Amino acid sequence: MAAPKKGRGAAGGQGKPGRSLALILIAMVALTGGMFLADQPTPRLGIDLAGGTSITLEAKAEPGQEQAINKTNMDTAVEIMNRRVNGLGVSEAEVQTQGDSNIIVNIPKGTDSAQARKQVGTTAKLYFRPVLTVAQGTPTPEPSASSTGKADASPSPKASASEKATDGDKATSPSSKPSASATTQGRAVTGALKADSSPSPKTSSSPKADSTPKAGESASPEDQAAAAELQKRFEALDCSSKASRSKAAQGSKSSDTVVACSQEGDAKYVLGPAEVSGTEVDSAKAAFDQQRGIWIVQMEFSDKGSKQFQTITKKLSAQQSPQNQFAIALDGEVVSAPQVNETLSGSAEISGSFTQQSAEDLANVLSYGALPLSFKEQSVTTVTAALGGEQLRAGLIAGAIGLALVVVYLVAYYRGLALIALLSLLVSGILSYTIMSLLGPAIGFALNLPAVCGAIVAIGITADSFIVYFERVRDEIREGRTLRPAVERGWPRARRTILVSDFVSFLAAAVLFVVTVGKVQGFAFTLGLTTLLDVVVVFLFTKPLMTIMARTKFFASGHPWSGLDPKRLGAKPPLRRSRRVNAPTEPKEA
Fold first, then answer.
1. CA-based end-to-end distance of the chain
2. Max CA-CA distance within the chain?
3. Sheet of 294-301: strands edge to edge?
4. 112: closest CA among 418, 440, 410?
């Protein structure tokens, strides 16, 4: 009785292929529903198929640093821009140099071109600078002359402005509200670190922190002139317009004392030399703070940056406002100027009036680094897809011809088995189409001509898997087995061959994706995706469907049009065990 029970158990395991078919059917329905819910009924097309926007940027060097426009810096800028607008390499945005000082950025239709223009043009030079003075963003009235007839050289705006700034953002209290004037940008920096109560020297409020005269000494004429010039610039600075805000810190170095505006234009600052550079930020990411209900940008410093950040916060924590503040200056504009009440290091976060998009944008430019050069937008033009449309039609015609030849071959050679192969190809096509459509809004995937070629090549890869399985089943029938045992015995052998073949194809696609750039990555990505889907379809659809078909009379009886006719396959007679019959012995005669 044990053997029949085992047979029924095996049959029971083989007798539930409907579960696999139901699973893949549910997956197709879910993906199709998600495609329409996401309002993305078609894959997003690349610039060669749908057209888009072409942006020309011209490199601009700082005065006296014209030699900075060289091949190394231009290549670095291209790499950073490409990462910003084409993070995973499949959005089909193109970034390339033109001549010695121009960069061309091509953005496909369907991408937010305004957002992309902002990302590629942002230099993303980040510095952490101590705040020496802060005032409202409008020009300050001319200072009155002293009794000696000389103007006060130190940038000392009205006390009311400084007093308003004393209640600014705190580095250890993200929930504290900024004042209504000098720090109304409402952003804070926090660090999950230990407080340090050790004494530290006072920060000077003079315009040129490194040139402050020691006790008993007087400032040199050069320092006095520099301080007077800085005072003049600070008082005349008007942060109400974007142009004036962008020009405020132009031409300055990280070691200079500078004037700067807040991003909103409601405050202006005198900032000391940079203490920490944005290059010391290891990583940055946007996150939603559930407790405060706001978007923040979390930053992790390198070991060197952590020590520098600890040093500056230790100094500032002992100062009075506004000199206990440090400014986070991005491309010359102050993103935030929080107060520091304790020593911080290691990590920090920028919080405040962020939207999800603005938080992600800032994290993006901080993560991918600063451009080595500044760029001016020369032109923005619209690119048509006339040539790409013609090539797409030609490619689709070629694909249709290839598919038709595959169908003819399957029907002529495999006959009834061609139905299983065609249904499997249809399922693979539906899964590929829906997933490519959903990957557009998810990761920015765009279908270009090389990607279409990858999808066409995948037809052959998928058909090859069916052929391997069909031939294994036929081999079993040639050995004299009936169809149902042949289907089950042929599967393990075919499965190993299919997995090895698909692994090699996927490995080739992965290597091609890693070592190439541009449009070739689209080909590699599509080839890898369809190779993975081939495994899913064969395991969850082709094999279960073959098991069900083997139970039908048409296939089980070996109909000539089933493709499994034992006579046409040259099958051997079935092997049967013959019982050994002992001849009865005759009784011996007495």
1. 44
2. 160
3. 188-190, 347-351, 294-301, 281-289
4. 440
CA distance 443 to 129: 36
What does DSSP say about strands 347-351 and 188-190: parallel, antiparallel, or unpaired? antiparallel
Residues near 39 by Cβ (< 8 Å), separated by ≥ 6?
A: none
Alpha carbon 51 to its chain's center = 22
Cβ–Cβ < 8 Å for 472, 118: no
pLDDT in tens, 117-167: 766 767 667 788 898 888 887 776 554 444 333 434 344 333 333 333 334
Strands (E) located in 276-410? 276-277, 281-289, 294-301, 326-330, 333-336, 347-351, 374-383
Tokens at 455, concatenated: 């999808």
Extract the tokens encoding 137: 């963003």
CA distance 452 to 429: 12
pLDDT in tens, 259-317: 888 877 888 888 988 888 877 888 888 889 888 888 888 888 888 888 888 888 888 88
Contacts of 585 (CB under 8 A, 6+ apart): none
Which residues have a Cβ under 8 Å from the Cβ of 357 and sit 6 or more positions away?
Answer: 115
* pTM attached to this predicted model: 0.57
Angle between helical axes of 519-537 and 417-443 (0-180°, round to 10): 130
Task: Give the separation between CA 243 and CA 247, rounded to whole angstroms.
Answer: 6
Burial of residue 88, with CB atoms counted within 10 A of its CB: 0-12 exposed, 13-18 middle, 19 or more buried: middle
**Which residue from 319, 318, 353, 324 is spatially nearest to 339, judged by alpha carbons?**
324
Distance CA 313, CA 303 (A): 16
Tokens of 439: 């990957």
* CB-facing half-sphere around the CA of 456: CA atoms within 13 A: 20
- The span from the CA of 275 to the CA of 103, in Å, is 32
Amino acid identity, residue 462? T
Alpha-carbon span 62 to 372, nearest angstrom? 11
Distance of alpha carbon 58 from alpha carbon 378, whole angstroms: 6
